[in-house]
Design goal:
binds calcium ion; 227 residues; 5-stranded parallel β-sheet; alpha/beta; elongated; 2 domains; 4-stranded antiparallel β-sheet; 11 strands
Amino acid sequence: MKLLVVEDETKIADYLRQGLTEEGFAVDLARNGLDGHHLAMTAPYDLIILDVMLPDVDGWRILQSLRDAGKNVPVLFLTARDSVADRVKGLELGADDYLVKPFAFSELLARVRTQLRRGSPAINADRFQIANLELDYLCRRATRSGQRINLTAKEFALLELLARHQGEVLSRALIASQVWDINFDSDTNVIDVAIRRLRAKMDDDFEPKLIHTVRGMGYRLDLPDED
Ligand code: CA
């Protein structure tokens, strides 16, 4: 799951990025309205957390541009403004939720997850199962044959991406764009290493093997091909 945070207050921006990254999200951060507007309009995100008061281009305008362009990505407004008129304006412009600063990170996280569940039919399900692998997206829990697999937030995010695209070959570039942030250096073999670690935890000691390497193309999660 890839999020964009548009926030000009350094402390809050860094706090959000760190907290959401630790939860396994890939987070791009824009520290002003112009960058935020550009990223929101050009890059695909699963959700945008948008400050209202921003230098250059304010949050209202970014939201308006998004909706005018027909982009219905969930937008969560995060703002110090708490007047009823502002809330109404945000919701009328098409914001999906509205959170007033100061806020508790746990509440933000709960609202983010709620919006992501509503976001698209493909991610509506809270659970995934294939063979003896079970994923609980809400609790961020993976089990195989009922045995708990301890994954890092990043590993779970990687497995979740593969599971949500079961049967599809995902290229390294796509995996990088969805699980890592914009600063990811695609020349590295980070993804191959991450896949290897993930396999060691959830595939090597179990049958059937579920993560498959498609040579020259990428990775796929599915039942093994029947010969
Ligand atoms: Ca601000």
